[in-house]
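Workshop exercise sheet. Pairs work together: one partner reads the sequence aloud, the other fills in the structure field after running the prediction. Swap roles for the next sheet.
Pair: D.N. / O.F.
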Amino acid sequence: MRAGAPGVLVQVRDRHGVWNGSAGVADRTTGRERGARDRYRVGSVTKTFVATVLLQMEAEGRLDLDDSVEKWLPGTVRGHGHDGRRITLRQLLNHTSGVYSFTSDPDFAQKALGPGFLRHRYDTWTPEQLVAVAMRHEPDFAPGQGWNYSNTNYVLAGMVIEKAAGRPYGAEIERRILRPLGLRATSVPGTSAAMPRPSGRAYSTLGADPNDPATPVHDVTELNPSLAGAAGEMVSDNADLQKFLRALLTGRLLPREQMRELTTTVPVGQGGVRGYGLGVYVQELSCGEKVWGHSGGIHGSASVVAATRDGRHTMAGNVNGDWVGLDRVLEAEFCG
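Structure field:
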């Protein structure tokens, strides 16, 4: 709150039970406080759901994570040095593919993330369009020769799910994860711009300096989430995110072999993150505690879900302003 967040919402589950904490407001106009059941856009936490579905499909023999992207999406990853014949599905999921991230494209960033967002917030982006943006650029590195977080990787992963399953990736997430676990507050909205209830508002400076008193804060609650697609479009709440991560880490969603693949990490060394697995990362906190999970950022929303490896201590949280993160809250919970 001292950093300027409109409101923050956190839930913790451990051996003592469930704790809900909140501060600030869900709506700067009405002053409504944030509620424990409020839903929010989870951004890149979507990637954990996508990776889980692909791992389930591998366990069923429907695909192999060492398949090439070209096998499933012929001709899609081509241009300026990109070559889907040399990239595996596994490299998409652990961000070692080298594929350029469409969100780094200056024109896309201006239109979808910066000031142009206010004119284009309801535009629909197809996965093919997002990948085409990335293909205008050279790869970050040759496949398997580095690590770089790329949202294009997971848009492609969503396309592979659709090709292998014969239905949208969101339908597979619902069928395989949301319904079996009873995650009723979680959804894959597609192109729907409205937020389900209960929920608050979401606020952004659209990339402008939040410390400058002259910087306006915009209400960005409504947006067409196809601009993120399988890389970050989902909506959930604190309780559902913890239930999902706990089920994932305790082996309820994946067989033993796929659990091994999920938690086999590649070095990252950025922001305290030790290694990135398949849609999850392991982070070492200041006290030496290691937690597994994922964070997510999208317009007006910064989220995190994290857990100890045994799933017995979990935390999920959200800030409804995208210029403030939850790192200090994570530290306080697991190291305090």
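Discussion prompt: The first helix runs from residue 46 to 59. What would you look at next?
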